[in-house]
Amino acid sequence: MTLLAVSDLTKRYRRGGKTIAAVDGVSFAVEPGETLALAGPSGSGKSTIARLVLRLIEPDAGNIQFEGDDFLTLNGAALRARRAHLQMVFQDPLAAFNPRATVARVLDDPLRIHAIASRAERPARIAALLERVGLTADLAPRAIHEISGGQRQRVAIARAIATNPSLIVLDEAVSALDVSVRGQILELLLDLQARERIAYLFISHDLGVVRAIAHRVVLLDAGRIAESGDARAVIDAPQSAIGKALVAAAPRLNRSSRQVP
Amino acid sequence: MSPLNRLLRRPEAVAGAFILAVLFAMALSASLLFPSDPQAIAGPALLPSFQDWSLPLGTDRLGRDVLAELFHGARTSLAVGLAAATAALFIGAVVGTLAGFAGGLVDEVLMRITDAFQTVPSFLLALAFVSVVGPSLGIVVAAIALGAWTGPARVARAEVLSIRERDYVAGARVIGMHPMAIAFREVLPNALPPVLALSSVIVAAAILTEAALSFLGLGDPNRVTWGGMIAEGRTVLRTAPFLSIVPGIALVLTVLGIYLAGEGVVETTAVRRSLS
Ligand SMILES: Nc1ncnc2c1ncn2[C@@H]1O[C@H](COP(=O)(O)OP(=O)(O)OP(=O)(O)O)[C@@H](O)[C@H]1O
Ligand SMILES: [Mg+2]
Question: Which domain holds residue A190?
Answer without folding.
Answer: 4-94+165-258
